[in-house]
Write a structure and sequence with these properties.
Elements: H1 3-14, E1 26-30, H2 42-60, E2 64-66, H3 77-86, H4 90-102, H5 108-114, H6 118-135, H7 151-166, E3 170-180, E4 185-186, E5 202-210, E6 216-221, E7 232-235, E8 241-246, E9 249-254, H8 255-262, E10 268-274, H9 276-280, E11 284-285, E12 291-296, E13 308-311, H10 317-327, E14 335-336, H11 341-347, H12 353-370, E15 372-373, H13 384-397, E16 401-407, E17 419-431, H14 435-447, E18 449-451, H15 455-465, E19 468-470, E20 472-473, E21 488-489, H16 499-502, H17 505-513, H18 519-526, H19 534-546, E22 551-555, H20 559-573, E23 582-586, E24 589-591, E25 594-595, H21 606-612, H22 615-625, E26 632-634, H23 636-654, H24 665-686, H25 690-710, H26 715-719, H27 723-730, H28 735-745, H29 760-769, H30 775-799, E27 806-811, H31 813-823, H32 835-840, H33 852-858, H34 860-867, E28 871-876, E29 878-879, E30 882-883, E31 890-893
Helix pairs in contact: 1-28, 3-6, 4-5, 14-15, 14-20, 15-20, 17-19, 18-19, 22-23, 22-25, 24-25, 24-29, 24-30, 27-28
């Protein structure tokens, strides 16, 4: 049995990650529960690995840690995949066949047949993910797991919604929502392919009528304030256009747009197709009474907006590029801003898509924040930010425009259904716009631990931005809306305060089975009231002890949705003492510099990770490859480097033999160096600076051991007094090998739950004290030696000398005393003779606290060997007109 499987089995057998209430300080950490429609890949694994590293570290510091996990089974994707399997969709069947073959399933066909029931998909991948997580060594308490499909949990969600409704936060009305055409249902971020990493939002366009002799054209824009700069209209020569009746007018839009309009308005009828040649026969009048022509341009996307674009070359990069080809450079300018199109052309490559996109962002940002209208009739002089709304309102009021909603990017659901924006009647939504709720949300965000700190303002902005949020759908898996069981609570809205259920899921499940779980019981358990029986008492006790969540760790894309709902729902329901105490927000993951996707062929599953590389190597990669907030790039080149150092560590420990004999100076230096590194490790980990912590305690210690060996020190003797603490510190990242070496060399306890001793530094100080130094001083001692050695080498290089001997003079007691008095601004008569030297060279003075003469004497043979000549060390003050300063000896080469 390999090392990793051996310890995974032992941890599970002995249940060491199932915590009990005790007298220690508790620490509860959660990460978002995974969605169970398929296997997870290397990108997903980063978040869960970081969470486990923190959980394990906190246990090593003697916290009572709860790291629970459940599974998200709500929403439409699982249901949609199941339906596609039911109708024999080949792409979906092939996808699931590939998942099952990777897991080594023999009877693939019968399992796929069972997937015609969506519950079987959810349950299969819940179990598969549990096994993936176990293989990665996650210290999760699986005893508390539950899913969003569990009936007892759905009782909790309905209780939550009734509480929100009591506070006036649940409303019903017309509202634009993201909508799946094939599924005929509202969708949220969790339902959309790549919705967690590439957010899809609803954008509000102004759809403007351009009056024609036989029919109108409709062009939709995010920038209605530019209508005075219109030069022409663009259509795509290869698109299909249709004539429709809308708002009592005959008008033309793309065929794609017609579908969207029918889901947003009740007054739209198809009249027939129309050719691009017919459209181009006529001129059209803008709302400013200007006659314009229609030209062809292949940049026009018929599936964006109305498929017709009005051209403003002075303020649109794409219009500028195409208009130059058609008509030259003459066009009106209607916005005055710091950056102009001529600047844009000079700054960016407008012949490439990337250059045009970047130039567009730069131009729009500058014009929106700093621009004002010119040559724009009654709007002249208005800032763009004000003019945009004013122009839009006037166009709509005059019957020349209407609101049209569009997705921020082309999107499909996880099962491949096209996503559009629909405006549905009687839509249920959560009203996050209320001032009292936002105030509580800001209070929570400003009082919690936030890492990285820069996301505190981002979170506050996200709270300000939130308004109404659709919270229910007509179909899908999940909890029935308690006010109207024709609706199902949508998948993000049912997963806001769910970490509370981790604390007492066992007791809640028992209460449900006995028929004793209702709103009154949950209010007594989670809020106010006295429990009526032992089960309620235990449920309340568990919740009271473990809650709130101390750290919630998730990725950047969740800020504007899940994390915002998480904050506001906690603020609405719970008292302040149960509000989340901290957030850690991690960066994204790419593979070989590219976004992870099947089309790029760079999807590596968690199962493949453990089979191909090992759990500990992957965990070490996650720990040291990037800071938490940075993007992590999974690539074979960097992985190979980390694997080499990990194998170096394994080779070192496999050959270790304890040696408790007295340490020499170099070995004591290593112990001191380790002690200081360990303190720095704690400081970094307490700030969640995981990369810094493990570069220090893993790579740094390995490098120190190499240096020690090069100096003739005994590696085994040096490691012996620090081994237990080194293994403890490495355990959060490489837990399997840490456990193996712990049992081989330290104890038959589990290092995973064996914490650092409070007074560990005292032992290291005692070891170092016999050399008349503290750990901090000895830590710096060899750095001092290396600096002196480098100074000698620099002198040799500059002078071109071949040294026959080197004389090193360190500051004597008189100079040392004078320097200390000088730095303390308390100069005595005896010290005055050194003052002119000290004033001139103040920046060179460095008082280490150790005896420089003694340290150099102990390293005399080493320095002599490195330079290749005899070395003499002495104490002195002024040598050949130079003063030997503390930390900066005089070097004389002959």
């Amino acid at each position: 049995m390999d090392i990793e499987t051996k310890w995974q089995n032992a941890w599970e057998r002995d249940g060491i990650f199932v915590p009990k209430i005790d007298e220690r300080k508790k620490f509860m950490i959660t990460v978002p529960w995974p969605y169970t429609n398929g296997s997870l890949h290397v990108g997903h694994g980063r978040t869960y690995t970081l969470g486990d590293i923190i959980a394990r570290y906190k246990r090593s510091r003697n916290y009572n840690v709860l790291f629970p996990m459940g599974f998200h089974q709500s929403g439409t994707p699982i249901l949609a995949f199941s339906e596609r399997i039911r109708v024999g969709d080949r792409a979906t069947i092939d996808l699931y066949r590939s998942y099952l073959q990777e897991y080594g399933e023999k009877d693939v066909d019968s399992i796929i047949e069972s997937f015609k029931d969506p519950k079987n998909i959810a349950d299969y991948f819940s179990n598969a993910i549990i096994n993936d997580f176990k293989r990665l060594g996650y210290s999760i308490d699986w005893s508390r797991r539950f899913t969003s499909a569990d009936e007892f949990y759905q009782k909790f969600v309905q209780w939550q919604f009734r509480r929100l409704n009591d506070k006036g936060l649940i409303k019903q009305g017309k509202y634009p929502i993201l909508y799946s055409l094939d599924d005929d249902n509202a969708v949220g971020e969790d339902d959309i392919k790549d919705g967690d990493t590439d957010k899809v939002t609803i954008e509000e366009y102004t759809a403007i009528f351009f009056h024609g002799r036989s029919f109108d054209l409709i062009a939709a824009s995010l920038r209605p304030e530019t209508i005075y700069g219109i030069t022409n209209l663009w259509i795509n020569p290869n698109a299909k256009y249709v004539k429709i009746r809308i708002a009592g007018r005959e008008a033309v839009v793309s065929e794609n747009c017609l579908t969207k309009l029918k889901f947003q308005r009740d007054d739209v009828d198809l009249l027939g197709e129309i050719s691009t040649a017919t459209i181009q026969k006529y001129t059209y009048e803008t709302p400013t009474k200007k006659q314009v022509k229609v030209y062809q341009a292949d940049f026009v996307d018929p599936d964006n907006g109305t498929g017709i674009v009005y051209s403003v070359p002075s303020h649109s990069v794409y219009d500028y590029v195409y208009y130059k080809k058609k008509r030259g450079h003459e066009f009106p300018v209607v916005i005055e801003a710091p950056i102009k199109m001529v600047d844009i052309e000079a700054k960016y490559d407008l012949n490439s898509d990337e250059g045009r996109e970047e130039a567009t962002r730069d131009l729009y940002r500058n014009e929106f924040y700093y621009g004002k209208l010119i040559n724009s009739g009654s709007y002249t002089g208005m800032p763009v930010r004000e003019a945009r709304e004013a122009v839009k309102k006037d166009l709509i009021d005059d019957g020349n425009a209407f609101i049209f909603y569009e997705t921020s990017r082309h999107a499909v659901t996880r099962s491949g259904s096209k996503v559009i924006v629909a405006v549905l009647p009687d839509q249920w939504f959560l009203d996050y716009s209320q001032t009292w709720l936002k105030d509580l949300g800001h209070s929570m965000i400003n009082s919690m631990v936030m890492h990285p700190e820069l996301y505190r303002s981002v979170m506050n902005d996200a709270i300000d931005w939130l308004r109404e949020r659709p919270c229910a759908r007509r179909r899908g898996l999940g909890t029935k809306l308690p006010f109207d069981d024709r609706w199902v609570i949508e998948s993000l809205s049912d997963s806001t305060i769910y970490p509370a259920v981790y604390t007492n899921s066992l007791q809640l499940r028992d209460l449900y089975v006995k028929g004793d779980l209702n709103d009154e019981v949950m209010t007594r358990i989670f809020l106010e009231g006295s429990p009526l029986n032992d089960k309620e008492e235990e449920a309340k006790k568990q919740f009271s002890y473990w809650y709130p969540v101390d750290i919630r760790l998730t990725a950047i894309p969740h800020i504007s949705n899940h994390l915002s709902f998480y904050v506001l729902n906690h603020a609405a329901i719970f008292p302040k003492e149960k509000w989340p105490a901290g957030l850690i927000i991690s960066g994204l993951v790419v593979s070989n510099g590219a976004k992870i996707s099947k089309s790029k062929g760079n999807v590596i599953s968690l199962l493949e990770i453990t089979k191909k590389y090992s759990a500990d190597i992957y965990r070490l990669y996650v720990a040291v490859q990037a800071d938490i907030s940075s993007t992590m790039d999974w690539n074979e080149t960097d992985l190979a480097g980390i694997t080499r150092r990990f194998n170096e560590f394994k080779d070192l420990l496999s050959k270790f033999k304890a040696d408790e004999s007295d340490l020499n100076f170099y070995e004591a230096w290593f112990v001191a160096r380790f002690a200081v590194r360990l303190k720095q490790f704690f400081e970094s980990m307490d700030k969640y600076q995981i990369r810094d912590a493990y570069i220090n305690i893993f790579y740094g210690v390995l490098n120190d051991l190499k240096y020690l060996a090069s100096r003739g020190g005994d590696v085994n003797r040096a490691i012996t007094p620090v081994l237990a603490d080194w293994i403890r510190s490495l355990m959060p990242v490489i837990p399997h090998h840490a456990e193996e070496y712990w049992h081989m060399y330290v104890s038959d306890t589990y290092v995973s739950v064996d914490p650092f001793q409070e007074n560990f530094m005292d032992r290291y100080e005692r070891i170092v004290r016999k050399f008349a130094m503290t750990c901090d001083q000895m830590y710096n001692a060899m750095d001092y030696v290396e600096r002196v050695l480098q100074d000698i080498k620099n002198i040799v290089q500059v002078t071109g000398m071949e040294p026959k001997s080197v004389e090193i003079t360190v500051a004597n007691d008189d100079v040392m005393r004078a320097a200390q008095e000088f730095l303390n601004n308390s100069v005595s008569g005896q010290s005055k003779k050194y003052m002119q030297y000290l004033v001139k060279r103040r920046k060179d003075i460095m008082i280490y606290g150790f005896d420089e003469y003694d340290v150099l004497q102990r390293n005399q043979v080493y320095i002599s060997k490195e330079i290749g000549c005899p070395i003499r060390i002495q104490r002195g003050d002024v040598i050949n007109g130079k003063i030997a300063l503390p930390g900066k000896p005089v070097i004389y080469i002959s």
